[in-house]
Amino acid sequence: MTATEQFARTAPAAPSEKLPSPARLRPRDILAVGLSGLRGRKLRAVLSALGIAIGVAAMVAVVGIGTSSQAQLADQIAKLGTNLLSVGPGSNFAGAEVKLPEDADGMVQRIGPVESATQTGKTSATVRRTDKVDSRITGGIQVLAARDNLLGTVGGKLRSGRFLDPATGRYPGVVLGAKAADRLGVDAPGGQVWLGDQWFTVLGILDPVPLAPELDSSAMVGWEAAKTYLGFDGHPGNVYTRTKESAVEAVRDVLAPTVNPKSPNEVKVSRPSDALAAQLAAKDTFNALLLGLGAVALLVGGVGVANTMVIAVLERRQEIGLRRALGAHRGQIRTQFLTEAVALAGFGGLAGAALGGLATYGYATAKGWPFAIPAGALAAAIAASALVGAVAGLYPAARAARLTPTEALATG
Amino acid sequence: MTGAEKTLVPTQFGGPDTEVITLSEATKTYAGGLTALDHASLSIRQGELLAIVGPSGSGKSTLLNLMGTLDRPSSGTVRVLGHDVATLSDRRLSAVRARWIGFVFQQFFLSPHLSALDNVANGLLYHGIGHSNRRERAAEALERVGLGQRLDHRPHELSGGERQRTAIARAVVSRPRIVLADEPTGALDSASGAAVVDLLRELNAQGTTIAVITHDGELAASLPRRVRIRDGRVTEDTGLAGAAPGGLGVGA
Fold first, then answer.
1. How open is the CA angle A230-A236-A240, to the nearest 5 degrees?
2. What CATH superfamily classification does B20-236 receive?
3. Which of the residue ranges A57-61, B15-19, B77-81, B89-93 would you say has the lowest mean pLDDT?
4. Which of A100, A212, B2, B162 has CA atoms 20 to 30 A from the CA of B131?
5. What is the pLDDT of residues A365-392, one digit of tens each?
6. CB contact under 8 A, A23 and B43
7. Distance from CA of B192 to the nearest CA of A (A)
8. Partner-chain residue, chosen from B18, B83, B123, that has the shortest CB–CB distance to A326
9. Nearest-CA residue of chain B relative to A321?
10. What is the reported pTM?
11. In chain B, where are the structural domains located?
């Protein structure tokens, strides 16, 4: 038989059977196949996911700590209230400090929406640990005459002891602000300090007062006692008032004319909670910078994943060849490596989110803040890492898919 | 002779005249001008057990790649059940490999971290059938190759011969129309090798079409049909022993 005859004889006329149709992998199988590559190389998977994890952890911690501290600040503002207004003396044309009328708090109290009003007045006395200390060393502590309702109005808290009351306010007793007590070396009430020209008994010590920080470095004596023992003239320097939350602005407008009808422009009216609110806003800019750093770390992690995947494709040519022989088409090989890259980065993201959450929790707890992480940020961080994984896997997956089965199988 | 009985075993896909793989004047030239296969013609029919034998570098691997649709010829045609491979897309061709062709490799290519059962089940991975169904059929296939007691063993817990039998189970689990075995005994000692050849015979007796690519003349001589390759040419073809008396004869 000649070759031509043989050819003629072996060439079939028509296909004897219908072609099998390509099958799709089920989602579960796609996942299992994508993860199979990580199972045999756990250490490498962990190391390359670590880059992503660090980036994500940094971002989540930055957002979480920022949110927690803001939540704490917001909590604090809510607790302190935004309805405290403070009136302080301005200066007149001559530059002299304006004296407010003695009954300023009483006049303010008569404004409709005002809930409470109180005042303090500066005395010329100094306070020292003992009479042996030089009178010029005041430690920056001012001695104030205070009404006995001061603490309730400014929202201050006693660390120990008690505050002035109508009885003690007449006698030489003093309440120290937190910093003042510190500087005088007084850590418990009951002792005596040299105030003006005589001994005053320490009645109580305050915690820091966030809405009236000027009280922290003050020594407060009763209004009547100040007049009796310290030659206080009775003119207040600061008036504090709590108003109905809805009427803060209205009260603010009439406060200056009420307190100083003759020259309202010579007093300063402020809302102490505004300073805290400004802090709240200021944190955002700092966050943006740190978030940027986290994003850079995430990108570097993505490069790590891409590197791992390129190596994986080189190393696993036989596996690719086998899969092609078992019937995987190019798309399925591409999907496999893409899934692997996304899973790698996704695990990193997940671990990073957990790590960041843990760091936030630890930091917030240590600081006594509430623990707060926006769920949206967590989801975004994990989604971002999956996206980074997809981009990182694109090129290696395309390379794997481009390998012909024979190329893949030929490498022994 | 036994060959007659084998090919008389009825199969669900057509009779013994069905040509499973047909090469017509297939030539493969690689970039750089090397002609690995030179106008090779070959037809494999349903139910055959044949050896493709030749020294290394003779073009057997290229022939296997073309028969297995892992590669396409530079000229000439390759048909699988009558379908010209050149006309098929990658997806179609992959489906052809998944359903119709089973591969056995010299180095087994088993996944070290999967059990024998899961390795065999992977033979059905690209069929789009469910996981438990795949495992069920894989258990059957392992039973068929005599490894019913080794389902949960990892490849490193199996002997070389058992590994190759696992790989053979993976090749036949999808009940392909043909199994292409590339040096299946090449990495085995002679006893395990002989056992593997016996297994291939047994599977053939049950109706599986098998082509064994080997450089081992002795192994080739023990099979019903031999196709000898040298320098990319088919130099001898003993034809269809028994199946088609008078057969194809010796080409050229």
1. 130
2. P-loop containing nucleotide triphosphate hydrolases (3.40.50.300)
3. B15-19
4. B162
5. 998 888 988 888 889 989 999 999 999 9
6. no
7. 22
8. B123
9. B70
10. 0.74
11. 20-236
